[in-house]
Design goal:
The protein has about 200 residues and is of the alpha+beta class. The protein is about 45% helix and about 15% strand. The longest helix has 20 residues. The radius of gyration is 18 Å and the shape is globular.
Length: about 200
């Protein structure tokens, strides 16, 4: 059984940087605090949003210029997560980097404080942490444990405690159209084609 804990690694990296995870500074400042003040460099021609590599004795985190702020935030968090995970773990780096990157961008203590302030308002949370509303919804599920599925045109993402979503992405898509009790449906404002299904604990 995999006992890896993204939340613990996110707190560790904030502590390493000397940044309080309850008052996060954002992934760019976190990366510079962990890897060095001159770590970030904007570079054209990257295939993805960001990439990290060794330069001399240090590390350089390259970011494609012109990315929307929420995409840049995710890309930097993901690359910092990859750097950490490659030093600490073998295998499953990409999937873990996505989870850890999200935890670096919206650390558990800060997200819990934001939830107390604005509730589960995905738009407000997205603004607060400079992420997409999809990322905000998934992160809320990871932190609170309340089961959620984000249904997009091509993907279905499930987070939180186990719940009877069905056996396939098609089963979850059917739940968007059904009137099954115990589910709340929310259409995301930044991507109206995306729906968040929130499962009631008792359902």
């Amino acid at each position: 059984m995999d006992t890896w804990d993204a939340e613990a690694d996110a707190i560790y990296l904030h502590t390493l940087a000397g940044i309080d995870p309850a008052e996060p500074a954002g992934p760019a400042e976190l990366a510079c605090a962990v890897l060095g003040a001159r770590t970030l460099e904007y570079a054209r021609g990257l295939r993805g949003g960001a990439a990290i590599g060794r330069v001399g004795d240090g590390w350089r985190l390259y970011v494609r210029p012109g990315l929307p702020p929420e995409v840049e935030s995710h890309a930097i968090g993901h690359e910092l997560a990859e750097w950490h995970l490659r030093r600490e773990y073998d295998g499953q780096i990409e999937a873990r980097a996505d989870r850890l990157g999200a935890a670096l961008v919206a650390p558990r203590p800060a997200l819990l404080a934001a939830l107390r302030a604005v509730g589960e308002d995905y738009a407000a949370l997205a603004r607060a942490f400079v992420v997409t509303q999809t990322s905000a919804a998934l992160r809320v599920a990871e932190v609170t444990g309340r089961p959620r599925a984000v249904v997009t045109r091509h993907w279905v993402f499930v987070r939180g405690a186990p719940w009877a979503w069905g056996q396939s992405a098609g089963d979850v898509r059917q739940l968007v159209r059904s009137r099954r009790p115990g589910l709340t449906r929310t259409r995301l404002r930044d991507r109206p084609e995306r729906v968040v299904l929130l499962a009631d604990d008792a359902a």
